[in-house]
Design goal:
The complex is a heterodimer.
Chain A: E1 2-3, E2 7-8, E3 14-16, E4 22-27, E5 30-35, E6 41-46, E7 53-56, E8 62-67, E9 72-77, E10 84-88, E11 96-99, E12 105-109, E13 115-120, E14 126-130, E15 139-141, E16 147-154, E17 157-164, E18 169-175, E19 181-186, E20 192-197, E21 204-208, E22 213-217, E23 226-231, E24 237-242, E25 246-251, E26 257-262, E27 266-267, E28 273-280, H1 291-296, E29 304-308, E30 314-315, E31 332-337, E32 343-348, E33 354-359, E34 364-370, E35 377-380, E36 387-390, E37 395-400, E38 403-408, E39 419-422, E40 428-432, E41 436-441
Chain B: H1 2-16, H2 31-36, H3 49-63, E1 69-72, E2 75-78, H4 80-201, E3 209-212, H5 229-276, H6 286-310, H7 317-350, H8 371-404, H9 409-475, H10 485-503
Helix pairs in contact in B: 5-7, 6-7, 9-10
The chains are: A mainly beta, B mainly alpha.
Chain lengths: 448, 509
């Protein structure tokens, strides 16, 4: 495993182009484009204000930089560095900005979610979409980029509009039977749209592409409901994580519950391997400690850590949430399927230091990773069943069916890994610190 | 004649000594015979007067009365006075007896009536006791039921309380969620109002617009099309096409899966048939006739089914599926029955635990080994194998050692010695320890002798001092102390004796 040197970034704005060749980083008001392999700076752009959000277009030719405070969006071209484009939303303000799947339209959501403006880079047309809903996930594009689903709310009722991304033609518009629609998500095959209610009511609605209601699923009443949703890459399963610390899997044929994964604090299942991170603090000799020694041995204060497999039964540490607060820290907040459909990684908020990996063939837990600090982020390798996670310390943790490994980022002065994402080829991971970034190139053979 | 009177007397005695348990109505009877026998003259007649008198006097003597006769010249004359006295005494006795009898009878009456009363009360109390016991049981039963009721109610109450608590928690969380949402909306509303105010007061309206150097072509290179009704219908058709494609793909996948599963089922069925059919080929024994019939039947039916199944491709899928699954089920049931039969026969034959599935294909005879014996054999063989392996390994090692140094005589000598080496080492160590101990002993011995010599010297010194001290005493003795001479003498004698004793010291060593 090789680590690159450290580069600056601000706001955790760092994205790899969809074709995997370039790495774009924002440093304050500058946009830096590097080559992914050599990490040489290829282009440097200067924006008018501190960049709040940055996105590559789908064909990797353009980069969008949004500055919400000023209501501006600037678009840069990679092929033609002189080309410029500036979109000013004016007094109406800007809250979010994103590309359309064809890479030629920009959708700006104005302040207070008054409307969504669709700007075209091909012609002078501007479209407006009224009454978008301000919710967890109000807008989603299908995987093939043909359709967009938008959650709307008017007259105290929730609606979903399906647009054709080609020419922004409204294909379908229908009301949903929800109290407060929280999000919409297309299935990877683009034929089913999942819509779910806010946490006050457990309700999952499944609509076909043509607007027919296929099924409704509600696991229980009254208690807080859905917290996170994930489709499996083959569209076979829909995983729903809820506040009752369970993940329910629906199958795509009957849309009924196939099984539910319970995150029990005591693990007794012999098929689940518990990887417990154990830290070894080195003993510092206090007598003969010279400055030279400290300077030379930078690893003196390093905390070594490795994984141990404790014998069953194992108690997972639980943090009881504050019952009086809204959005309590309990329930499944993150679910992700591996790319081969075999594994599902989940995180239960009241066990913040653990990540659970479930085997979808056996429909049972296959591994539980217990870290020494709350897990901040985890992501699956886009090519193989390998999970990378970070807990905000200087280490990168990797899990694969072969085993678990913790790697220290060899950066002087420490590098707190706060977030990470994989390169689309699965050969490297980009680690993001507070204001730094570092690339980690994976070894070609599997680590143990 | 006296015998009959004796009998009457006996009757009297018998009737007077009645058992106390007799009913009181009969107790009046004994009074009557006394009156009866007064007028009885059968006891004494003119002939037996003297015998009667003798008898009576004997009886009276026996009863403690003085003799009624007095001797007058050898003749026994009746003393009338004493006889009358005796008669009077008897009458008195009789009266007393009667009185006592009356008393006793009264007493007996009283007692029996008391007894009767007691019995009545006893029976009444028993009845009462029974009743109260029943009542007690009833009350106990009722209490138990009530307790069970209260327990169940407690349980219900607890459950209800728990549910109430849960619902309260849910309500609380929902309320906090609502409040949070409400606050968020209020904040947003506030911001909106502010912005509205700002916009209304702000004169310069910043227009929105896009400033682009030049328009970019579409990503797919095509030109965009006008929006007409045709495009709308095209969109619709595109959408439906996408859905249909998805359905087609899905259906194809399901068909493939279905075909594979059917194949698997067929294979299972054939394998099951195959397992059961070899019975036909093994020898003809009585016990095998039964399974033979079995398998014949099975095979016949299987062949029928197979033939019929070949034509099912023409039949509807539903029908084919049902047929296949039914036939599989039938086969499975037959297999189960067959296994049960094998188990039973295994028990009968060997009086041991039932046969294992391992030897299913063979005949039902001595070829079947019980599972436990089989496992034991395996264990034993494994152990043997391990031992042999170890043995071979050690032999190999030794052989290698032998082969590696074949030429050197010295080394050979060393090699031959190497077995002795260990012993030599051990012996050396033992010698060492022995030498050490010997040294220690010597040292101790020396110290002891030195100590003894010193002790002897000291003793000698001590005795000399003592002797001088005594001499002093003796010399400084006054005239008045002559009386103490004796004691001194004895002392000196004792000292001399001591000296004698000490002069020949015996060392303890």
């Amino acid at each position: 495993m090789n680590f690159s040197e450290v580069f600056k970034q601000s706001n955790q704005l760092c994205k790899v182009s969809p074709d995997g060749k370039y790495l774009a980083t924002c440093v304050q008001y500058r946009l830096v484009v590097r080559d992914v392999n050599t990490l040489q700076i290829l282009q440097l752009y200067t924006c008018l204000d501190q960049v709040a959000s940055m996105e590559w277009s789908s064909d990797s030719l353009f980069i969008l930089c949004a500055m919400y405070k000023r209501g501006l969006v600037q678009v840069w071209s990679l092929e033609q560095p002189d080309w410029h484009c500036k979109i000013d939303e004016g007094s109406i303000g800007l809250v979010s900005s994103r590309w359309s799947p064809d890479g030629r339209h920009i959708l700006n959501t104005t302040e207070f979610h008054l409307r969504v403006t669709v700007w075209s880079l091909c012609n002078k047309s501007v479209s407006y979409i009224k009454y978008p809903k301000a919710c967890q996930k109000g807008m989603d594009f299908s995987a093939d980029g043909r359709y967009m689903a938008l959650a709307e709310r008017r007259d105290c009722k929730d609606y979903i509009s399906v647009f054709v991304c080609d020419d922004w033609h409204l294909l379908r518009h229908f009301e949903t039977d929800t109290q407060d629609l929280a999000g919409v998500e297309w299935s990877p095959n683009g034929c089913v749209l999942a819509a779910w209610d806010s946490c006050l009511e457990y309700k999952m609605l499944l609509y076909s592409l043509d607007g027919r209601l296929l099924s409704t699923y509600s696991a229980y009443e009254w208690s807080l409901g859905i917290k996170s949703v994930a489709w499996s890459p083959s569209s076979q399963f829909l995983a729903i994580g809820s506040y009752d610390e369970k993940v329910r899997i629906l199958n795509h044929i009957t849309w009924k519950k196939l099984t539910e994964f319970e995150h029990h604090p005591t693990i007794t299942n012999s098929k689940a391997v518990v990887f417990k991170e154990v830290e070894k603090r080195p003993v510092i000799p206090t007598e003969d400690l010279s400055i030279q020694q400290i300077a030379m041995e930078s690893s003196l204060f390093d905390i070594q850590s490795k994984y141990e497999i404790p014998p069953l039964p194992v108690q997972v540490p639980v943090v009881k949430p504050d019952p009086d607060r809204a959005n309590p820290k309990i329930g499944i907040s993150a679910i992700a399927f591996s790319v081969d459909n075999r594994y599902l990684a989940t995180k239960n908020d009241c066990m913040p230091q653990s990540v659970w990996v479930w085997d979808m063939q056996r429909l049972g837990p296959t591994a539980v990773l217990e870290q020494t600090a709350p897990v901040r982020f985890f992501a699956w390798d886009p090519r193989r069943p390998r999970l990378a996670l970070c807990t905000g310390n200087t280490k990168l943790y990797l899990w694969s069916p072969a085993g678990c490994v913790s790697v220290k980022v060899p950066v002087e002065g420490g590098f707190q890994v706060q977030s990470l994402f994989w390169h689309c080829s699965g050969d490297s991971v980009v680690l993001l610190g507070k204001d730094q970034l570092c690339l980690c190139y994976m070894a070609t053979d599997e680590e143990k | 004649m006296p015998e009959s009177s004796f009998e009457d007397i006996n009757n009297i005695y018998v009737s007077s000594t009645m058992p106390p348990s007799r009913q009181y109505s009969q107790s009046t009877i004994p009074l009557l015979p006394f009156r009866h026998y007064i007028g009885n003259t059968e006891f004494c007649t003119e002939n037996n007067t003297s015998e009667c008198m003798l008898y009576i006097s004997q009886e009276l003597l026996a009863l403690g009365f003085p003799s009624i006769f007095f001797d007058l010249n050898g003749l026994r004359e009746l003393d009338v006075i004493s006889a009358l006295n005796s008669m009077y005494g008897l009458l008195q006795m009789h009266r007393r007896a009667v009185g006592m009898l009356a008393e006793l009878e009264v007493e007996q009456l009283r007692v029996s009536s008391d007894l009767h009363c007691q019995q009545l009360t006893n029976s009444k109390l028993k009845d009462q006791l029974e009743l109260s016991k029943k009542e007690n049981l009833r009350l106990c039963e009722r209490e138990r039921q009530l307790e069970a009721n209260t327990k169940a109610l407690h349980h219900c109450l607890k459950n209800e309380k728990e549910e109430v608590q849960k619902l309260q928690n849910v309500i609380a969380s929902r309320a906090s969620q609502y409040n949070h949402n409400l606050k968020r909306k209020e904040r947003e509303f506030g911001k909106l109002k502010e912005r509205l105010n700002q916009l209304l007061t702000d004169k310069k309206d910043k227009k929105q617009g896009m400033d682009v150097l030049n328009y970019v072509g579409r990503s797919d290179g095509k030109r965009s099309q006008w929006k007409t009704g045709k495009t709308d219908s095209r969109h619709e058709s595109d959408m439906y096409k996408a859905l249909l494609n998805e359905f087609d793909k899905h259906q194809r996948e399901l068909m493939i899966e279905n075909a594979e599963l059917k194949k698997v089922l067929q294979q299972i069925k054939q394998e099951m048939v195959g397992i059961l059919s070899p019975k036909r080929q093994s020898g003809e024994t009585q016990k095998e006739e039964k399974p033979k019939e079995f398998t014949d039947q099975q095979i016949a039916s299987d062949e029928e089914e197979e033939n019929s199944f070949k034509g099912t491709s023409e039949m509807s899928c539903e029908h084919a599926r049902e047929q296949l699954s039914n036939s599989i089920r039938q086969q499975w049931r037959k297999l189960k029955d067959h296994m049960a039969n094998l188990d039973n026969k295994g028990i009968l034959k060997h009086e041991s635990p039932p046969a294992s599935l391992v030897h299913l294909g063979q005949g039902i005879n001595e070829e079947m080994i019980s599972k436990e014996v089989h496992q034991e054999e395996m264990e034993r063989l494994k152990l043997e194998i391990q031992q042999c392996k170890d043995f071979i390994h050690t032999q190999q090692q030794l052989l290698q050692q032998q082969l590696s140094t074949p030429w050197d005589e010295e080394t050979a000598a060393v090699l031959t010695d190497c077995y002795m080496l260990e012993e030599k080492e051990r012996l050396k160590e033992e010698w060492k320890t022995f030498e050490e101990q010997k040294k220690n002993f010597e040292m101790e011995r020396r110290t002891f002798t030195e100590a003894a010599i010193r002790l002897g010297h000291e003793r000698k010194m001590f005795e000399e001092d003592r002797a001088t001290w005594l001499k002093h005493q003796f010399l400084n003795m006054t005239f008045t102390d002559q009386m103490n001479l004796k004691t001194q003498n004895t002392l000196s004698e004792y000292a001399v004796q001591e000296q004698k004793h000490i002069s020949s010291p015996k060392t303890p060593l």
